[in-house]
């Protein structure tokens, strides 16, 4: 639960209070941006989409019918991200491959060991590649639950499906990720090697 | 498999999926642990899979969280700008945006319309379809029929009114007797007069309902006759004869004039009131024109088995539709900045 009076801020936003809405923005912008960036993998595009998502949220605040507000915001941003990806897929001349620095995942490691750092960087690239090989639905499920650490109910609300659907997608996504990462077993922790 | 399908149908997760997820998440209940053990007995490879998934989850949990480097707070100017963008045209362009299913709808509509125009044109050339409402004038028919008469096929039935009753009949026996054309307005209408120009060869006699009942005409007098004959002609569907005088060669001109004379006679009142014959003929012509202007079409012997369609109207409409769809598509692309 948020540490501030979320419902009051939402009500003030409904009355057109920009300051109230911006408090909500500051609270949730990292969560929204993370999901968008992991979806489009382009920081500049992710920033644009996130900004548009908050603008859209302010304008559509009257359509918010309760529930987890962060999930509602993420859902708006997720839909905008998917729209962008579909648009890019239909117009290859604006492909993400041109002069764009991809977002790269990194893995936390406190060991201070250069060799471990190098291995973690490789592992991060492997995970990134395997995540990219998943369908949007599966990737959203595994990003929301396993990477971002959301509960099933909030992930379901963010994605716009039932909890059961999220669980099924997560189950399949994990199985696919397992198969994918095992193609480079030397990068995996000992517990993951066959 | 069936159980999974049923679970999916009722929106419930498969208990095994729930158990596997809970086990990998590290919060499996006692029942779920029992189910997992049972699944492991059935499939010994499951234990290794679940161990790998748990390790993978740990790795994913160590992926760095993303923090924003900028603020996404909104300002009134941003909202106003977004509202300007979200005008009616913008919403329309969004509806047909490339990622939407409707994106290609204008192109598809234009394509179908253009294809239809092409097919109609092709059908017109090949005779599969033909323009509806393409009527043959009585004169043409008569002219054709005079040939038919000579060749021994004088029968001709021209239908000119909604009732389907024959409007004009050409008597078959014309070798000796005068050619008689009978014009009746509709079944049951009393023939006012049978005008037969005896002694003339190939003379039309119009036994027509264009003449009103004699008593009415007698009461109304000579002045009323033109109106009455005009209205009767409108009802009757008598086809224009004057075209024959314009189009056909001299024989037909003669026939037309005689016919008109016959019609004029038929339109005349029966009580002997004096009506100038020439005036009547003119008025009858007028009434015939009225009949023609009502679009009363005569059908002659069919010359084609083609499908009768309002061809050029369809072609023009479809071509306009194609152009409009292409224009809309191009306009939307321009507005969208595509």
Q: What would your notes on this structure say?
A:
- The complex is a heterodimer of chains A (194) and B (338).
- With 194 residues, chain A is an all-alpha fold.
- Chain A has two domains: 6-94, Orthogonal Bundle (Rna Polymerase Sigma Factor, Chain: A); 114-192, Winged helix-like DNA-binding domain superfamily/Winged helix DNA-binding domain (Arc Repressor Mutant, subunit A), CATH 1.10.10.10.
- Chain A is 66% helix and 0% strand.
- Chain A is built from eight helices and no strands.
- The longest helix of chain A is centred in the N-terminal third of the chain and has 23 residues, at 18-40.
- In chain A, 39% of the residues are buried.
- Chain B is mainly α.
- Chain B folds into three domains: 2-61, no CATH class; 68-135 and 302-338; 138-293, no CATH class.
- Chain B has helices at residues 2-9, 15-25, 30-42, 45-61, 76-85, 88-95, 105-126, 138-150, 214-236, 242-247, 250-267, 277-293, 311-336, and strands spanning 129-131, 156-159, 166-170, 181-183, 193-194, 207-208, 307-309.
- In chain B, the strands form three sheets. Chain B has a three-stranded antiparallel β-sheet with strand order 2-3-4, with no helix packed on it. A two-stranded parallel ribbon of chain B has the order 1-7.
- In chain B, 30% of the residues are buried.
- At the A-B interface, helix 2, helix 3, helix 4, helix 5 and helix 6 of A face helix 2, helix 4 and helix 5 of B.
């Amino acid at each position: 639960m948020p540490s501030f009076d979320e419902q009051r801020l939402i009500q003030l936003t409904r009355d057109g209070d920009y300051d109230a809405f911006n408090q909500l923005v500051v609270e949730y912008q990292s969560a929204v941006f993370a999901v968008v960036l992991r979806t489009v993998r382009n920081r500049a595009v992710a920033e644009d989409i996130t900004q548009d998502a908050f603008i859209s949220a302010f304008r559509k605040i009257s359509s918010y019918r309760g529930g987890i507000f962060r999930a509602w915001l993420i859902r708006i941003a997720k839909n905008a991200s998917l729209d962008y990806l579909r648009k890019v897929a239909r117009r290859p001349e604006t492909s993400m491959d041109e002069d764009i620095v991809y977002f790269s995942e990194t893995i936390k490691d406190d060991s201070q060991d250069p060799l471990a750092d190098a291995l973690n960087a490789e592992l991060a690239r492997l995970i990134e590649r395997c995540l990219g090989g998943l369908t949007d639905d599966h990737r959203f499920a595994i990003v929301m639950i396993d990477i971002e650490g959301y509960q099933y109910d909030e992930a379901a609300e963010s994605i716009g499906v039932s909890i059961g659907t999220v669980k099924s997608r997560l189950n399949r996504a994990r199985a696919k990720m397992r198969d994918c990462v095992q193609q480079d077993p030397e990068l995996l922790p000992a517990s993951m090697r066959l | 498999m069936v159980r999974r399908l049923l679970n999916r149908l009722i929106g419930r997760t498969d208990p095994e999926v729930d158990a596997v997820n809970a086990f990998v998440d590290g919060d499996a209940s006692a029942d779920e642990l029992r189910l997992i053990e049972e699944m492991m007995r059935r499939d010994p490879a499951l234990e290794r899979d679940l161990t790998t998934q748990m390790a993978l989850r740990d790795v994913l949990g160590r992926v760095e969280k993303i923090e924003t480097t900028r603020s996404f707070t909104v300002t009134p100017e941003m909202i106003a700008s977004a509202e300007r963008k979200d005008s009616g045209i913008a919403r329309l362009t969004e509806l047909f945006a490339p990622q939407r299913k409707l994106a290609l709808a204008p192109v598809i509509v234009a394509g179908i319309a253009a294809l239809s125009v092409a097919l109609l044109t092709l059908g017109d050339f090949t005779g599969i379809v033909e323009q509806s409402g393409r009527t043959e004038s009585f004169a043409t028919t008569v002219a054709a029929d005079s040939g038919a008469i000579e060749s021994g096929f004088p029968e001709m039935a021209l239908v000119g009114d909604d009732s389907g009753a024959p409007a004009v009949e050409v008597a078959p026996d014309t070798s000796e007797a005068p050619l008689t054309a009978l014009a009746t307005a509709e079944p049951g209408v009393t023939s006012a007069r049978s005008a037969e120009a005896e002694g003339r060869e190939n003379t039309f006699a119009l036994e027509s309902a264009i003449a009103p009942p004699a008593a009415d005409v007698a009461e109304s007098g000579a002045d009323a006759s033109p109106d009455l004959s005009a209205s009767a002609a409108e009802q009757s569907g008598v086809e224009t004869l004057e075209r024959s005088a314009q189009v056909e060669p001299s024989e037909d001109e003669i026939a037309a004039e005689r016919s008109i004379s016959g019609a004029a006679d038929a339109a005349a009142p029966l009580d002997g009131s004096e009506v100038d014959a020439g005036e009547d003929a003119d008025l009858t012509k007028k009434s015939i024109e009225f009949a023609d202007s009502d679009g009363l079409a005569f059908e002659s012997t069919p010359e084609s088995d083609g499908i009768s369609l309002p061809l050029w109207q369809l072609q023009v409409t479809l071509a306009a539709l194609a152009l409009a769809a292409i224009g809309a598509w191009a306009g939307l692309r321009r507005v969208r900045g595509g």
